[in-house]
Amino acid sequence: MSTLAAAPGVVRKSTRIFVTQEDVSTLLGCGKSKAYDIVRDVNKSAKKSGNQPFPAGKANKYLFAEIYCIPIEEVDRVISKE
Questions:
Q1: How many whole angstroms separate alpha carbon 43 and alpha carbon 45?
Q2: Within a 13 Å sphere around the CA of 43, how many CA atoms are in the beta-carbon half?
């Protein structure tokens, strides 16, 4: 089945462009409260750099991955486990 997913012209399942508190907690191994703080900090960084922050409880997954030096593939793996 993996060869079919890699075939030309096959659209893979889309992933979210944001992380939630649950995703952050899983990726960093922190508690719920700390994960919410991290989401807020990522949104503050986005706003400071002139980008639009996400709504409360969500943060840009690309900015999060960049700030915490986590490969985007790992973030996508955690997000897709829903």
A1: 5
A2: 17
Structural domain boundaries in the chain: 16-79
3-state SS of the chain is CHHHHCCCCCCCCCCCCEEEHHHHHHHHCCCHHHHHHHHHHHHHHHHHCCCCCCCCCEEEHHHHHHHCCCCHHHHHHHHCCC
Task: Dig out the tokens for 76 from the structure.
Answer: 């996508």
- How confident is the model over 24-68, as pLDDT tens digits? 999 999 999 999 999 999 999 999 999 999 999 999 999 999 999
Instruction: Record the pTM.
Output: 0.81
- Looking at residues 2-23, what average pLDDT do you find? 79
The residues that bridge with 59 in the sheet, in sequence order, are: 19
